[in-house]
Specification:
Largest sheet: 5 strands, mixed
CATH architecture: 3-Layer(aba) Sandwich
Helix content: 25-40%
CATH superfamily: Cytidine Deaminase, domain 2
Number of domains: 1
Order of helices and strands: HEEHEHEEHH
Number of strands: 5
Radius of gyration: 16 Å
CATH topology: Cytidine Deaminase, domain 2
Length: 153
């Protein structure tokens, strides 16, 4: 199922993709990447139209690095918002579109099971996909609840 570029789940108009990617491009400039030098910026949009920004933040202990998408979702959750996330825009250094990593896909699924992702790079080509297309058979709240039903019987 391809996302409808003119509508979001809330029924309102979808955010302008070029504008969102431009915002993500500006956020990318704030990335802290002394090791990889690979900057990523992200903007998540919730059903009520609120936008949350994030840039990747590296650490000498690579495991402690935060992705841009995770940073934006953390900002959203820290503000008290629980979404749902309807749209995610991600842009990174390099020409090819930069899609969210597996951990970010799982987190997007948690807060936006119907989210549309727009991924781009400096080359200008945009890849648009739903989170379900990027994370088929994802492990979400419905599956966890299903496990509780089985255990109770």
């Amino acid at each position: 199922m391809k996302p409808d570029p003119d509508r979001v789940r809330s029924g309102g108009p979808a955010p302008d993709v070029a504008e969102l990617l431009g915002q993500a491009r500006q956020v990318r400039e704030r990335a802290y990447v002394p090791y990889s030098r690979f900057r990523v910026g992200a903007v998540v949009v919730t059903a009520d139209g609120r936008r949350f920004e994030g840039a990747n933040v590296e650490n000498a202990s690579y495991r402690l690095t935060s992705c841009a998408e995770q940073s934006a979702i953390s900002a959203m959750a820290s503000s008290g918002s629980r979404g749902p996330i309807t749209t995610v825009a991600v842009i990174a250094d390099g020409d090819a579109p930069c899609t969210p990593c597996g951990a970010c896909r799982q987190t997007i699924l948690e807060f936006g099971p119907d989210a549309v992702i727009h991924a781009s790079g400096e080359g200008g080509r945009t890849l648009t996909a739903t989170i379900a297309e990027l994370l088929p058979h994802g492990f979400g709240a419905a599956r966890l609840a299903d496990g509780h039903d089985v255990a109770a019987s």
